[in-house]
Amino acid sequence: MAESSTSARERIVAGAADMISRRGLNATSIRETAKHARAPLGSTYHYFPEGKQQLVTEAVRYTGEWTARSLRKELQAGPEAGLQAFLALWRKIVVDSDFRAGCPVLAVSIEEPAAGQTSAVLAAAADVFSTWEGLLADSLREHGTEPERAAHLATLIVAAVEGTVAMCRAKRSTEPLDRTAGQLRALILAAIGD
């Protein structure tokens, strides 16, 4: 019983993250998320008694951890490998969705939330971005980059990739991602080679 409950709950959270990545924060409703996740509407309210804000917050955290797991694994081979994995992950999402999906963390960060629904969702998004930056900065430092430069470069990488994903969706092309990838790779190689 607990196993099926966990998988139903995770399916709802993953479904919410997917819907937010495609439609944005305000166009994602509890009802549509339940339908998308093939879950009864009542179970959605059971798992998320605080409503949409709780669900969206968990969807942001889910995306953050899912991405961080990939980053942690790839960063074991160094910051360049981590960058390539980060870029490949977002490339796959935009290409596989025919440029209809982006990053749900970015979506909740830039869209005006409903009144009274800002703190938990934005705090979760800020935590996710900080985690990604921290992982990249740690790897850069471990490979010889001065701490302040590592932190600045990590912020630039996350910001550039997030913005590039939005550009890819708008242009319906991976060209912005390709251009950004080359420049970020050069910056990483310069930082770890200095």
Describe this structure in words.
There is one protein chain. The protein has 194 residues and is mainly α. The protein is 79% helix and 0% strand. The chain has 9 helices and no strands. It has helices at 2-23, 30-36, 41-47, 52-75, 79-96, 104-110, 119-142, 147-171, 175-193. It is elongated and about 55 Å long. The N and C termini lie far apart (55 Å). The model has no long low-confidence stretch (mean pLDDT 91).
pLDDT under 50 segments (min length 5)? none
Whole-angstrom Rg: 18 Å
Number of helices: 9
Spell out the helices and strands N to C: HHHHHHHHH
**Helix share bin:** over 70%
Q: Gap between N and C termini, in Å?
A: 55 Å
Shape estimate: elongated
Strand content bin: under 5%
Largest sheet: none
- Number of DSSP strands? 0
Overall mean pLDDT:
91
Structural class: mainly alpha
Domain HTH tetR-type: 6-66
Protein name: TetR/AcrR family transcriptional regulator
Keywords: DNA-binding, Transcription, Transcription regulation
DNA-binding region: 29-48
